[in-house]
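Narrative of accomplishments. A recurring question from our advisory board has been how the design workflow behaves on a single, concrete structure rather than in aggregate. To address it, we present the structure tokens for one chain from the evaluation set, followed by the sequence designed for it. No filtering or post-editing was applied between the two.
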């Protein structure tokens, strides 16, 4: 499974055996390059960035680190190795061999799943394009750019599947993936969270923590697909995604640690006096991103999710390892969740498990985010702070599912009027304009190797065994 770097499109999928496909992708390549120059990391396209590039897909040995100018990054097409005997682990076709081609009856659904996933990848690059100019360090700047080039590669991964398996429609969809733009009024990205502004590094770390983590769960569910090329593509994307999640989770931990330290040092505990980020602002930013990301999972009771599961297009998180579970077919189990009845009372409702696949995936996601929250609160404890951070209730600020537009407080305990909700979101629950301006004001770039902005603590160690003071980006 070595990657072929001799061709214009590095790959381990024997692209050179399919000249027609190769030519189609070679025609897509310049459009991609234009897109990257237009909306990719602004201001650093000529810099030498210490980036990893995949050279094989084997566990442990796939990354090669070197200085690369981002426009010269070798975006490629990678899949994990074919497992000849791979079988479907769930749904109506349990035990049957997986598919190497798209079955006609699931063409539409599979294309939809791939396009929806594909759309998030370039969207995030667009959302993050201005952050390089306010990097807290060269280490962080390099991590941002690593995330960016890999999201670009994830777009390649989805575009390859569209070109190879979906004919002309697939080529059109691949074209459209380069035409939509995050937050564009006429042709925005497909999912709301991917049209939200990422204004600063607190947003970025929350995005990499909460939004990329939604991506992890979606990719893990698609990695269980009976459509084997999708499964193998997503498996390799997941190995790259792990770094993005690391960037988000540890980035937040580092801000939280620094804030707690500054609370001890600053007169009156006011961290703003030392250019720190107040804990309340961090909490409000959690409120914003976490609630938005919960909507990405879709409604709790979903007939689409049921049919994706029964036809084995999309499984649960870690489906293959659940295979000994008696409910692998999803036919004989139920899922309980809370709804609000006409009188506003919370009541429990039971639906067939197959219909609850979105909720089940989301539950795994929430458990993962809660694990990280415990760690962040541990940092506060270590630094002697009494305050604690929280994730907002799943009832708060929802636009999709049971609690859509219900105007709950962030703790999920009370309902308020729509007017109050809007006002309090602006003034109390989300970062205010004044807080956003303040954050921007402290995010002046720090570009001396080994130096960090005062609002964030240094990482525990560098990248690829390099010291923290390594020159991760040579800015030109
Ligand atoms: Fe991605
Ligand atoms: Fe990612």
């Amino acid at each position: 499974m070595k990657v072929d770097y001799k061709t214009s499109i590095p790959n381990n999928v024997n692209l050179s055996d399919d000249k027609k496909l190769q030519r189609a992708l070679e025609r897509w390549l310049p459009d991609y390059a234009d897109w990257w120059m237009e909306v990719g990391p602004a201001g650093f396209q000529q810099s030498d960035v210490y980036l990893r590039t995949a050279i094989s897909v084997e566990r442990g040995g796939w990354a090669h680190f070197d200085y690369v100018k981002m426009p010269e990054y070798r975006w490629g097409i990678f899949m994990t190795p074919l497992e000849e005997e791979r079988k479907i682990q769930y749904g109506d076709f349990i035990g049957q061999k997986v598919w190497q081609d798209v079955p006609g009856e699931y063409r539409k659904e599979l294309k939809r799943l791939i396009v929806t996933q594909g759309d998030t990848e370039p969207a995030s690059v667009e959302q993050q394009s201005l952050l390089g100019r306010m990097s807290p360090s060269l280490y962080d700047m390099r991590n941002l750019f690593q995330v960016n080039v890999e999201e670009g590669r994830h777009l390649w991964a989805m575009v390859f599947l569209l070109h190879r398996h979906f004919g002309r429609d697939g080529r059109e969809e691949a074209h459209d993936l380069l035409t939509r733009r995050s937050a564009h009024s006429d042709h925005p990205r497909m999912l709301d969270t991917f049209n939200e502004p990422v204004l600063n590094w607190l947003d970025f770390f929350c995005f990499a923590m909460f939004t990329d983590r939604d991506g992890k769960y979606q990719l893990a569910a698609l990695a269980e697909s009976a459509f084997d090329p999708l499964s193998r593509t997503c498996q390799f994307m997941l190995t790259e995604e792990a770094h993005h999640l690391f960037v988000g989770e540890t980035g937040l931990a580092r801000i939280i640690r620094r804030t707690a330290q500054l609370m001890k040092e600053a007169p009156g505990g006011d961290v703003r006096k030392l250019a720190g980020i107040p804990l309340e602002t961090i909490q409000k930013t959690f409120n914003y991103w976490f609630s938005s990301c919960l909507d990405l999972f879709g409604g709790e009771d979903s007939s689409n999710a049921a049919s994706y599961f029964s036809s084995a297009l999309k499984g649960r998180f870690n489906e293959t390892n659940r295979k000994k579970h008696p409910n692998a077919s999803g036919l004989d189990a139920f899922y309980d969740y809370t709804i609000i009845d006409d009188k506003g009372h919370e009541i429990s409702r039971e639906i067939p498990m197959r219909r609850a696949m979105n909720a089940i995936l989301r539950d795994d996601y929430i458990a993962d985010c809660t694990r990280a929250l415990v760690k962040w609160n541990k940092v506060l404890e270590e630094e002697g702070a009494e305050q604690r951070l929280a994730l907002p209730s799943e009832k708060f600020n929802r636009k999709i599912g049971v609690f859509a537009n219900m105007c709950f407080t962030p703790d999920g305990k009370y309902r308020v009027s729509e007017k109050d909700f809007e006002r309090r979101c602006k003034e109390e629950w989300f970062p205010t304009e004044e807080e956003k301006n303040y954050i921007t004001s402290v995010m002046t770039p720090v570009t001396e190797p080994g130096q960090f902005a005062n609002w964030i603590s240094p990482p525990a160690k560098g990248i690829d065994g390099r010291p923290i003071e390594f020159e991760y980006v040579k800015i030109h």
